[in-house]
């Protein structure tokens, strides 16, 4: 009898097959995502495509992911999570092969957009499979493992990408990712049970999915090209108008469908809105910074690092963020989630602002402390915001709230990377036109891009007041670990003891 009670208390343990499939695929997807910015100079040299154009390999991936991540979860609930997860794996393999075989920048960008759909599907359905195959404390252990795999992939990506550029060419990353993803297919077929939600409406909000793309594509296009077109040009303003019309259409569509992509009523929740903005800014600033630094470190007028050296140079930020993540929840519980988010954005804003003083004669040593402080700050803001986004709503609304938060990560990454890339390139061009040396122009580009990110972080401090009245409950460490990259669609901190 005692054994039965102990098993009930421990909860249902996730099977080996679903652990392997979910964790390995998540590791590969995140490693792939974080490695691509390191590969851009090599891809540019090989294909003859300007890096400014290849920026779409990053932003395109994220904007497609934003449009697909919630829909893929809904498809899994209706048609079977294993079936949709397998579709994501197959699509990921196809996208890797397409990218590796591409001889043009257009092929790489198209492959990355397909990969955005595949990656978001793998993350959404893999997490769902893991959640339904376990329960109680055992579920939290499984989520902790999934979060560790997610974080390890994000940290290892730039290093692995850097090694492979020198050893096999930039294509090597995608061939290896294709092989690993393909290996997850038989594991999923033979070791993972199918599951679906019989109570969910079979309606899929295709209109909402399309309208998310209608909103984001012209926004990213305007942010990417506005510097060349002119911010008051017809083309730029037209993009903003199309995006605004897309927002109107999205709101109207979501009010009419039976199973909306986003429950608009949730936006009456100030805590959810505040945490979503915080999540968006965290994702946006770290993606923007890594994009700029990967180019600056490898530029001959910068540090002229190899891809591997550039990957190693970004390691302090990623490693510190992972290292401090388990400590964030106790700090947030002690000082309060709003205070933790405010402190986090203040620290990261100061770190970004310090990079705004970048000069052509700076050595790498000048970057280390700002990178470490930035990582601590963003981790401190991200953890409480991720937790608040789900713990501030009713249990029945957790799935919708986590979908909004996960979408915000992709939206923030795509928009901020586009804006940062434009500021970086425009500042470099303007300073060169004024007679600055290549090194001086490059430092000016980094400076202006860092100032933009500092303004984003400090602006988020003002918005953090939206988190004001939320009291954070006890959050399991598993949620904290997984929140490094994603918001977990489970209710945390409400287990029976």
TrEMBL record:
It comes from the Bacteria. Keywords: Cell membrane, Membrane, Transmembrane, Transmembrane helix, Transport. InterPro entries: MFS, MFS_dom, MFS_trans_sf. The chain crosses the membrane at residues 54-75, 84-101, 113-132, 144-167, 173-192, 204-223, 229-252, 272-297, 303-328, 340-358, 364-381, 410-429, 449-467. It is a multi-pass membrane protein. Residues 18-472 form the Major facilitator superfamily (MFS) profile domain. It is found in: Cell membrane. Pfam families: MFS_1 (PF07690). This is MFS transporter. It comes from Paractinoplanes globisporus.
